Amino acid sequence: MCKPDKDSYMLLGLIPEIGSTTAMRLLRHFGSPAAIFSATKERLMEVERVGKKAAESIVKFSKSINISPVKDALANIGGNFICIEDNNYPGLLRSLQDSPTGLYCMGNADLNAPMVSIVGSRICTVYGQSVARKFAAAFARAGLTVVSGMARGIDTAAHIGAMEAGGKTIAILGCGVDVIYPPENIDLYKKIIDNGAVLSEFPLGTRADRQTFPIRNRLISGISLATIVVESDTRGGSMITARLAAEQGRDVFAIPGRIDSPSSRGCHALIRDGATLAASPEDVLEALQFSGQLKLSLGDTCNPSDKAPSSATVQSELPGNLGDDEFSVLKALDALDDATADAISELTKLPIQKCLAALLMLEIKKLAGKNKNGAWQRRAK
User: Fold this and answer.
1) In 3D, which of 255, 27, 54, 248 has the Cα closest to residue 157?
2) Going by CATH, does the domain composed of 106-290 fall within 3.90.1170.20?
3) What is the CATH number of domain 311-378?
4) Which of 23, 99, 111, 149 is most buried when burial is the number of CB atoms within 10 A of its CB?
5) What's the pLDDT tens digit per position in 300-358?
6) Rg of the chain taking only CA atoms, in angstroms
7) What stretches of 108-211 adopt beta strand conformation (E)?
8) Angstrom distance (rounded) from CA 133 to CA 141
9) What pTM does this model have?
């Protein structure tokens, strides 16, 4: 299989007057960037909605733009360019009519891992921040990558929650990946790169403005199995993201709030109009599993201790429809009083992340839960 011509895709994205929708129309018509660049103005104008101005821009700039400085600048900041033909290009984005032909990337995350996006208002309440962190942490423990936009407020809380739980998070920017916006999030920006990735379809140096944010919002929703709106008024970027998610065939969830709070009006409007009410992270996970979009796999059981019975033995004593890790953890809860995750990990010999994932699944299945002191215990049969 031939390597994709990344340079041509990068060049296509740098040509003025050519947005993602037009670029995809051209690619579907001509088959490759090289064929687009070799076409005459007249042939270019045969493509639907490609007018004289766009055709002239392609003819002119495809021969005059030098991408070497762009590639050097990207290499200098440790970034890379992922074109639509790359294996690690997000598969969910390929299904969009206006897929970006390429993404600038900082960090190293699996862009085809199951993802959910958490979005909300920049001006949010303490309740909203707490909920965003809680949901993000739960999703991270379940093995999902949490996506948001690195904005102030809910976005920031979502990224932090995912990383606090030891999970992956991705920020999709409305500016170049080398532009930190808002500037006070510089430390968050660095942490996201270390624990996931920062993505943008915009060329390096692009500044954020009112036009770029709605454009990037379609990627936040498009790369995700579901979008969860935590807090929003009836207008704003989060509502745009939710609408785009619905148009893209993605699930939309909204967190309810106080009926007299402006920051919850948008969420209540979404629920009224058909979005699914999410009162807990489990509501989202259960819905995604039920629809077949998500299959949580907790992996094989690690070497159990002498005290831990085999999964075959456990299966005769415990409820069915449990994974091996869940059997081991549930059996440990029978042996421990008010167990911590660390204690369960020590008894079962499972890594702490597998324990946390198993505990989350047991909580979803209403077989385990936390008491008022925050310790894990088995729920009454």
Assistant:
1) 255
2) no
3) 1.10.10.10
4) 149
5) 323 333 333 333 222 323 444 567 788 888 888 888 877 888 889 888 988 887 888 78
6) 23
7) 115-119, 145-148, 169-172, 196-200
8) 12
9) 0.78
